[in-house]
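@channel anyone free to eyeball this complex?
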Amino acid sequence: MPAASEDDLIDAVRKVLSDEAPGVIVPVGDDAAVVEPGRHHVVLSTDMLVEGVHFTLDTISAQDLGHKALTVNVSDLAAMGAAPRYALIALGLPSVAEGAWVMELYGGLREAAGDLGMTIVGGDMSRSEQHVISVAVVGAVAKGRAVTRSGARPGDALVVTGTLGAAAAGLALAKSPPQDVRDELTTDAGREVVRAHLRPAARIGEGETLAHAGASAMIDLSDGLAIDLHRVCAESQVGARIRVADLPIAAAAREVADALRLDPVRLALGGGEDYELLAAIPHEVVEPTRHKLAERYGSSLTEIGEITESGVVIEDDGKERPLERTGWDHFA
Amino acid sequence: MPAASEDDLIDAVRKVLSDEAPGVIVPVGDDAAVVEPGRHHVVLSTDMLVEGVHFTLDTISAQDLGHKALTVNVSDLAAMGAAPRYALIALGLPSVAEGAWVMELYGGLREAAGDLGMTIVGGDMSRSEQHVISVAVVGAVAKGRAVTRSGARPGDALVVTGTLGAAAAGLALAKSPPQDVRDELTTDAGREVVRAHLRPAARIGEGETLAHAGASAMIDLSDGLAIDLHRVCAESQVGARIRVADLPIAAAAREVADALRLDPVRLALGGGEDYELLAAIPHEVVEPTRHKLAERYGSSLTEIGEITESGVVIEDDGKERPLERTGWDHFA
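replying in thread with the prediction:
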């Protein structure tokens, strides 16, 4: 039965996905899924991960990859102040014979869906030369509460959740010569940065809290603080000033960067994949919001600069210079 | 500016997409799109088209490809009885240098969005070895009105909209030796089947009408009548009997099949890509529904058989035989 193999694989995937979930009227397996949106606005985003561009099979397990693929998509919803609800997964696979890899990938996707409080409601599978994972996510946000990239106002404080540079240090470590990797992977810092690279978190609660606190603009740090800050400034038609001394660089990132002779500031500004949130918020709410994030989620919030009229600059040792768009370009 | 190229291409794409549309609160260009779902249930589906698997660049223009990519996704919504509303487009591209190709593709996507009454609200772009187009669509259906594949009941009539086999004949013609192609492409039938292959339509109004008429199960014919009928029967835990003599094979498909020495019945059963709707409906509503489709959309509706207790069979010249799952398997 030549036609059975694809349907068989889809049947196997359906078995690992839970069919019963709040708001799901028709789950995975039909022409389309049907869901109940409630009274909220619906928030939509999509991201594609391609083998050799976003990941290589020898440096990430199928389970970690599945977990990460869903999480980084949801990070875009968090950056709107939205809560994730549903996901669609389209896969490109070099061969249907990879059933075990696909099931492991779906194990990670399902684990992430559980962590994120959402449901996978549909998908597609196709042959392709590289492994491709295209995820579309659906979230909900109270009407009028979505935070875009375009509302930042001069005078707003620039804040960032969590720490920066760990995922980039983890990627640098994974790409280093074997001897360096062997030495560093035995340290706590080495393990921490590799985990940051393989298992990023999406700051959903933090995004909702920042939205409620009155964030005027917000973005998730997927391509690096520098390029993502440039994007906010361009969309909001404002400038920004940030301070090197205030960047919340992860201690583990500093330690691994030292060992690999890399500049930790460069990792924090241009490394990408932190999936922390960068937000512009009124100065007076920085402190109360910091307390809320610490109390509710154990997350830190750091003021790294402010929104200005024009020009994107970075202050280092009392001197100001233009901040280059040193983010990661998929096509570079 | 190495980081500018991707953002530049995204900016160019945003310019061809209309930002103002009913229900769109935050359009393309932010972390995620925000839309207003109204009081309906939300219907979600995704499909991935891969170069070398679903299309080749030398047989379809970027504009036709864009139009087709959105239309075939929406066909899945039509098969639920839903109306399309929003779309997300994730692209994998061998090189960012293909700006002109991407803009032409988006021209076709936008044209289809206009034809289908929907809005493209987001997307992603990545490098990849092959061209990959992953589309996710969001539709709306009145609560409780979605038609799944799983409700068919013994005794229901099996009906199909439009005609079958033209797209498969078009594909066969495109793959034929140059002399055959030259001869056939000068005929009306040749042009018609090639157009059916390149520019399929999604049967949205027909799907809504069939849903209202009380369809118990519905599917769109993407992989071929045989395999798609097997899917409905498996999901509904029923059987079916169809009759060769009643298949609405397109006249142009018969003509081109004759010229290429192909079996038109085989094209109709196993060719795929017709994107017509196959539905199970109560016998007594076949006639009134046929009239409604003709009047409202100029579409035909043909009764090709009925739902039975078990076994999927085809009747030819008075003899019954099992209907093979001769549909197209992406991995075959």
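from a first look: DSSP finds eleven helices and 13 strands in chain A.
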